[in-house]
Amino acid sequence: xxxxxxxxxxxxxxxxxxxxxxxxxxxxxxxxxxxxxxxxxxxxxxxxxxxxxxxxxxxxxxxxxxxxxxxxxxxxxxxxxxxxxxxxxxxxxxxxxxxxxxxxxxxxxxxxxxxxxxxxxxxxxxxxxxxxxxxxxxxxxxxxxxxxxxxxxxxxxxxxxxxxxxxxxxxxxxxxxxxxxxxxxxxxxxxxxxxxxxxxxxxxxxxxxxxxxxxxxxxxxxxxxxxxxxxxxxxxxxxxxxxxxxxxxxxxxxxxxxxxxxxxxxxxxxxxxxxxxxxxxxxxxxxxxxxxxxxxxxxxxxxxxxxxxxxxxxxxxxxxxxxxxxxxxxxxxxxxxxxxxxxx
Amino acid sequence: xxxxxxxxxxxxxxxxxxxxxxxxxxxxxxxxxxxxxxxxxxxxxxxxxxxxxxxxxxxxxxxxxxxxxxxxxxxxxxxxxxxxxxxxxxxxxxxxxxxxxxxxxxxxxxxxxxxxxxxxxxxxxxxxxxxxxxxxxxxxxxxxxxxxxxxxxxxxxxxxxxxxxxxxxxxxxxxxxxxxxxxxxxxx
Lengths: 344, 188
Prior knowledge:
The complex is a heterodimer of chains A (about 350) and B (about 190).
Chain A: E1 2-7, H1 23-39, E2 44-47, H2 60-70, E3 75-78, E4 81-82, H3 88-101, E5 106-111, H4 117-122, H5 129-145, E6 148-151, E7 159-163, E8 175-179, H6 183-192, E9 196-199, H7 205-221, E10 231-239, H8 243-262, H9 268-273, E11 282-284, H10 286-300, E12 304-308, H11 316-343
Parallel strand pairs in A: 1-2, 1-12, 2-3, 3-5, 4-5, 5-8, 8-9, 9-10, 10-11, 10-12
Antiparallel strand pairs in A: 6-7
Chain B: E1 2-7, H1 14-29, E2 34-39, H2 58-69, E3 72-78, H3 86-94, E4 104-111, H4 119-130, E5 134-135, E6 140-143, E7 147-148, E8 151-152, H5 155-186
Helix pairs in contact in B: 1-5
C-alpha cells in the first residue's frame, strides 16, 4: 500500500499563539513539506484548491509545479482540482506540464467543491453543481484518452478535432474521482470505472467500508474489474508519544480551523473517539497508528492512504517531526505488512 | 450570554408583540445577557439552496450568522395552515444539520385557535431536536384574544413568558456548566 500526505492549502493562524504566517511563507512551507515527504520515502503528496478566506493555494497547479521542481521521486497531485468550475482543457494542459516537469509523477484528483465561493467568483450557477461536475469530468477523461478531441456539451464551447497539448510523459495521467464519505457519490465513480479518492473527517472504519463496497459493486456491474481500480482514503493524522499527547496537540488546530473555514468547531466528544482503534482518524502513538492503518487496510483493501496533518496552522516543526516518525517508524511497518499480505 | 430572540413570520403582528415583551423582560431582569432581536419581517432572506451558511451574503448571511453566534435562541412563531411559517423553516434550512448544538432553545407560539396548541410540540420541537438544540420542554402558547393593539392584555401571559425566560436562562447556564465540566474531563 502507498502512503501519502495531502494539504488543503489552508492558511490559518496557529490557535496557540493567534499568529498567522504570511502567504509567502505558507507556500514555501508546503513545498518544503513535500520535499521532506519525498526524502522520507513517502509515495504521494497532494495540494487542494479552495477559493475562500483562510486558504493560500487557490492556484494549486502553480504550487504543484514548484513541488515538481523541488522533489525527485514522490508522486504529486491535486486534492482536489475543482473540475466543475475549471476548463478541462486548461486543467489537462497544466497537469500534463507538471507531469513533464516532474518527469512522469503527476496525477489529478477531480472534485466538485464543498464550498461554493468559486461559483460566484468564476461566474457559474450553483444550481448546475452536479451537471457541471459530470460533464467536465467526462471531458477530462476523454482528453486523457485522446490527443485529438471532438466533443460538445452544455457548459463549454465544442471541440472539433482539437489537439490538447502537451501530452504527459506517462502517456496518460492517473485521474481520480474525489468522493465524500457517502455511498451515493462512490457509486458514480464505480459506474464510470475510475479510481476513487475518498476523504473523511471521522467516524468508524466500518461505516466507510460500505462506501467502498458500493463503489466496487457499481464498478463490477458496469463491467470493470474492481481489483484493477485503486482506492485511496484520506483523513486526519497526527503522531505523538502517546495518544493523549496527540489529541492534545492536534485538537485546537482542528477545532479552531474548522470554526474559521466551515463555521462550526469539531466536537471534543467525536474527536476523543478518534483515538479508538475502530476510528478512521489516525491519531495516536506511532505503534497505535500502525495498528490502525493495518486494520483499515484489512477492512478496506485500499491501495493508498493519505494523511492530513497540517490543517489549522500546525507549526512546521511539528510537521517535520511527523514526517520523520512516518518515515522511520510507520512507513516501514506498513510497507512490510502490506507487501507480505499482497504476496499471500 | 448571547441571546437571540426571533420573530419567525413576515406577516401579522402578534408574534412581534410577544417577542417585544420578551426582549424587554430579558433586558430588565438579566444583567449579563446580550439580546438581539431578529424579526424576519425586517430582512430579505433568500431561500436556502444548500450552501454553507458562511457563503450567504446580505440579509441572509446576517440572519444565518446571527443565529449561529447565539448561545440562547428564543423562537417566536405564529401557526399558519397547521404548521410553522415557511419563513421560519427556511431559516433553519440555512444552517448546518447540527447547527443548534450547544445552544438552548425556547418557543413562544401565537395562534388564532386553541386547536393549534400541539403544532409546536409536534412540528417545531422535532426540528430543534434534530438540529441538536437543548430544548426548554415547556413553551408559551398565546391565543388571539390576549392581544389588543400590539399589547398583551393578559397578565397571565406575561407571567408565563417571564417563567419561560427563567427556565431558559437556568437551562442555558446549567448546560454550559455541564459542557465545561465534560470538556475538562477530556484533558486535551
